[in-house]
Write a structure and sequence with these properties.
Cofactor (chains A, B, C): Mg(2+)
Strand content of chain A: 5-15%
CATH class of the largest domain in chain A: Alpha Beta
Number of domains of chain A: 2
Strand order of the largest sheet of chain A: 1-2-3-4-5-6-7-8
Keywords (chains A, B, C): Magnesium, Metal-binding
InterPro entries (chains A, B, C): Aldolase/citrate-lyase_domain (IPR005000), Citramalyl-CoA_lyase (IPR040186), Citrate_lyase_beta/mcl1/mcl2 (IPR011206), Pyrv/PenolPyrv_kinase-like_dom (IPR015813), Pyrv_kinase-like_dom_sf (IPR040442)
Oligomer: homotrimer
Structural class of chain A: alpha/beta
Protein name (chains A, B, C): Citrate lyase subunit beta-like protein, mitochondrial
CATH topology of the largest domain in chain A: TIM Barrel
Organism (chains A, B, C): Limulus polyphemus
Chain lengths: 346, 346, 346
């Protein structure tokens, strides 16, 4: 059920697009296609939507923590080969992840593997070992993707390591933006990934903001208000949403400050992010709640739509609701919230 | 007189450019060209400047509201075919707008027609009917312009629908940015419109930020502080001003909160927007005042220029004024404010 | 010693890059190359790093102020031919600067000459006179660089005016961004300068944000919070750091408000700027302190690294420190701060 907020977001993203080709009103009330999207958990482009409100890192060499994942009720767990694993433990992490993929039932949690970066020289060995698992991870993450060359390398490596495997679905690829250069080239990089996925073994499914490496790269200092990364965050949302893929917001580093976490999570959701990285299990419920609609919002949306239908009957266009003029963009938002609430049984 | 603030803004925009080709000081005190710009209401590029501080939407099918426009003292009224009109009323709206253009004396208010979007399939019919009016609208608006293709379609349709008409002036085109993709492509789209206008029947005159559709597209939620659209707003100002065209800021949706409206209007003016969309007549005076210079500012500007002239005589460059070092950029701002105040008789 | 903070920033900028080609940990603890960078004051790319935390303007025709520069303990003094000098005093300014360069011992302060803009028609005469000095300025600044053409013109003029001189080092070029167009084209302009410097007499070393001309160009009003230029500031940091060059922040115009100056200086440093323009000597110590690390930060960094080493021994990756999960990006920041503190003897 958790994925439906994201599905909603995808609907939001594609609303304007659809109304470009048919007409807005036709889309808005086309219950047929709507039901299809929601009940089959497939987005408008035919791809199954995977919720990733909270994205939790688990060191790949820590078997105890990996086995605890199914109890955490987290949308997405990242079995990490990269920053969470010391250099001396890389080989151990790869083997542990491979076995965990086959042995642990992760339930509703998506298990993603984060490889080391292309330039680290470690990623090919990561893939070689992890892809020996009987159950392949549905999604892989690549940190520090800096250029079109990196995306091309990933595409070729996937052919190399998966040539003997039969894939039911393409593997989802999620990339990290962690430097000034990669942010400036983000649209080009993502567009190349989209193009390559046509005949490739993967589909680009999201972008993650690696804020600490990014700040180190530009010489910035992380602050509580995160003003220093506002441009970066909004650019990432902008490019991701222009390609109808997910955008995952920065880590809230002080994991004991749950109040601050909540504020930053809500802010990220308001900005258009579809999820947020977390580094401790205590952050999961707060983040996952922030990326779902509030009771007030649901009530507002239901009543607005009720009144709109009455006004629509009367042939009027814009109308007043709770002291505000309402037109179609607001209606579309309300419609999406109501759809989501119905499926979440809120 | 209301248009002069905008004229001022155009002067601001072009100040740096002009000083690129001649020399700053020559421009600054060239009273000849200055007087010409102000008294003839023509901008530096020979195009008449049209003030659009408040841009008010009026549903095209609502004859009562349309007839009320001349009493509102608004810079710009949008006779709307798009979001303010129910699908069942589109034909009625077109015909009503056509007759209103010929029958109503709108006085100092510019009457603009907003067509339906290119992708709606309704825009060609909109233009066909509206352009039957004896008095053509000086300006048309197109919502949801997403690509260079859209601009080319508009250009061709104008030739088609206006081939039997004699135009005294080219028609002003104002486009809406309402999605992630269109924001990313904004400069390319606008540049194509500028190029096409060379031999076309239109001139690109402004960009409007359609914040609700934009937020729906990126999955963002509108908040009071509007932090979620800060990048979008600043990008729109940046691209518009790089092409010396107008930039119209987002709607303040809660039309009963006039205090909030005032704050957001002042913020928009400070950011470089030349006007703001309004959805209720009560918003007009607040917005129009926010986009005009304050008494304090005028007094500051007059005194600064007086002191500068005295220092200039003495051959000194930078000088101190009220505890601040003053150089030419500040002088240019002051000069523009004084010119505006003189014409507004403030 | 003041330059080391900037050296640190350069290390930050290049940290992620280096770890792309070798591996992070190898870089992190490679004391050999680290010592080389710090003690020889050379950056990773072999170019000597010049600190410019505070960048002070001094009118080129004001001999009294110019002679006072060595007493000010400022990183960088700009001997100005442009906005600080009245048109009637341009020739006097050029000659005064030429003589000051040869006669005054500026000590630890770098003396930079700001020419008039390319489009002013004055820049060629500026260079002709200034480059007659026996001691050439190590760095020149060009205001209002608007296009690739401007950069090409500067490159050619340098060949013309310096053809009879033997250069020990290439001349550093710093350009000003002062309009919407130049901000939109910033990356292209800077990349062209980097390309031209391959066989040219200069090296692009930084970008300065000329906020007053920029605001005049976009029709914005400068406010205390500077929200109206947030996009511009963050874009300048982004492009500069992607090319590993310096970024110099806006002037704080009210030079009597030292509290406000301090806040804005710290904000700029947090955003990734390497320095800030100042217009009065009283601003220098505040700005230079803001662009150096705090005692708290140094203590945090030292302790973090101590604990990391202990954890590293034990083979663990991410670990907890003062309630926060620490991984490599944070480690790199801490490492850089410790290196800096050692050399500053803090």
């Amino acid at each position: 059920m958790a994925g439906l907020h994201h599905q909603l977001t995808m609907l939001w993203q594609t609303g304007a697009k659809r109304c470009s080709f048919s007409f807005f009103t036709r889309f808005l009330w086309s219950s047929c296609s709507r039901n299809n999207q929601v009940t089959e958990k497939r987005g408008i482009f035919g791809k199954k939507y995977i919720p990733r409100r909270a994205v939790l890192y688990v060191p790949g060499d820590d078997e105890r923590k990996l086995k605890k994942v199914p109890t955490l009720n987290v949308d997405c767990a990242v079995l990490d080969c990269e920053d969470g694993v010391a250099l001396s433990k890389k080989e151990e992490a790869r083997k542990t992840i491979r076995h965990m993929l086959d042995q642990v039932e992760f339930g509703r949690t998506e298990c993603v593997v984060r490889m080391n970066s292309v330039d680290s020289g470690l990623a090919s060995d990561d893939m070689k070992e992890v892809f020996k698992a009987g159950r392949l991870p549905p999604t892989i993450m690549f940190p520090k993707v800096e250029s079109v060359d990196h995306v091309e390398w990933i595409s070729e490596e996937l052919f190399k390591h998966l040539r003997t495997r039969t894939l039911v679905d393409k593997i989802n690829l999620i990339i990290y933006i962690e430097s000034a250069k990669s942010l400036l080239d983000l649209r080009t990089i993502c567009q190349r990934a989209v193009d390559l996925s046509e005949k490739g073994l993967f589909i680009l499914d999201g972008v993650v903001f690696g804020s600490d490496d990014f700040c180190a790269d530009i010489g910035a200092t992380r602050t509580l208000q995160a003003k220093e990364v506002l441009l970066a965050r909004q650019n990432i949302v902008l490019v991701a949403k222009s390609l109808k893929i997910q955008a995952v917001d920065l880590v809230y580093i002080d994991y004991k400050d749950l109040k601050g976490l909540k504020e930053q999570s809500l802010e990220g959701a308001q900005m258009g992010f579809t999820g947020k990285q977390v580094i401790h299990p205590s952050q999961i419920p707060i983040v996952q709640e922030a990326f779902a609609p509030s009771t007030d919002k649901i009530e507002w949306a239901k009543e607005l739509i009720k009144e709109f239908k009455e006004h629509q009957m009367s042939g009027m266009g814009a109308f007043e609701f709770r002291g505000a003029m309402i037109d179609k963009p607001l209606l579309l938002q309300a419609q999406n919230i109501v759809q989501l609430a119905e499926v979440l049984e809120l």
